[in-house]
Design brief:
Layout: E1 3-6, H1 8-12, H2 23-32, E2 36-40, H3 45-49, H4 54-57, E3 61-64, E4 69-72, E5 75-79, H5 84-94, E6 101-106, E7 110-113, H6 120-123, E8 130-133, E9 143-149, H7 155-165, E10 170-174, E11 179-184, H8 189-200, E12 207-211, H9 217-222, E13 225-229, H10 234-239, E14 242-244, H11 251-260
Parallel strand pairs: 1-2, 1-12, 2-3, 7-8, 12-13, 13-14
Antiparallel strand pairs: 3-4, 4-5, 6-7, 6-9, 9-11, 10-11
Helix pairs in contact: 2-11
């Protein structure tokens, strides 16, 4: 094994957003065995890097914003932004629904309407680099994706309605219990992980990945060793090399221990 990539929410992180204190020691062991550790998340870079200790966070590669961006040591190695006409079309669709919270994920910042400033505590769990705006139309940035938080019980109906309006080259994926994202169909954690493997000259059969949601689906198929959490969505489990313990029971940590012993 030369590389391990992990999703964060529902996978590496427990439900309270914490992770095992054993990780730092296991990370050192992974380095000794030549295993590169990669964070692959729908969240932004700043919100991911701050989860780790100073001596670790700059060694990690971050596939952030659902694979629309690769960051290493604070520098962007790759990004796939939406064309302006596509971004405008998506925005026009999403602005029709005032009940959910829209996040416009840009290269520089995440942008949220000032009407949701009362949700700052919730927002801070997922984003650290946020600008609250009067109007989404005034944003001047490369748009990577759109994220929607559905706080009511209408998420399925909302997704169905939006999907019918999207052009064929765009896709909608669930990324958490209340979140779903919209970006290009040909971009996902899997395609971006493939790009990173090529940069690092690592073969897919020398790599593993952990995930739980549909935005992890392609990533688990990109590598030989795709590990689905016990709490994963059924389709994710179906394509996995192995189903491991849940995020609440530190399934990723337990599997890393096995991998370090040569038990893939």
């Amino acid at each position: 094994m030369k590389l391990l990539a992990t999703d964060m929410d529902g996978t590496f992180l427990r439900d309270d957003k914490s992770y095992s204190e054993e990780f730092n020691d296991l990370y050192k062991q992974m380095l000794k065995q030549g295993i590169q550790f990669v964070i692959a998340s729908g969240n932004q870079y700043e919100a991911l890097a701050c989860k780790f200790d100073e001596e670790i966070k700059n060694d990690l590669y971050y596939l952030c914003e659902n694979g629309t961006k690769i960051v290493y040591q604070g520098k962007t190695l790759y990004k796939k932004a939406l064309k302006k006409e596509d971004a405008k079309e998506i925005l026009d669709i999403l602005k029709q629904d005032q009940e959910c919270m829209l996040v416009v994920s840009g290269d520089k910042h995440a942008y949220i309407s000032k009407s949701f400033e009362n949700k700052k505590d919730f927002i801070s769990l997922f984003m650290k680099n946020v600008q609250f705006v009067e109007s989404y139309d005034d944003i001047e940035d490369d748009i990577l994706k759109f994220s929607i938080a559905s706080f009511d019980d209408q998420m399925e109906q909302r997704i169905e309605k939006i999907q019918k309006q999207l052009k064929p080259h765009l896709k909608l994926v669930t990324t958490g219990n209340v979140w779903f994202d919209i970006f290009y169909k040909d971009v996902n954690k899997g395609t971006t992980l493939t790009h990173l493997l090529e940069i690092l000259k690592i073969k897919p059969e020398e790599a593993g990945a952990f995930g739980d949601q549909m935005n992890d689906y392609e990533m688990l198929q990109t590598v030989k060793y795709g590990y689905a959490m016990a709490n994963a969505m059924p389709p994710v489990k179906e394509v996995a090399y192995q189903v491991i313990d849940s995020n609440e029971n530190d399934g990723v940590i337990l599997k890393i221990k096995e991998i370090l012993k040569g038990n893939y």
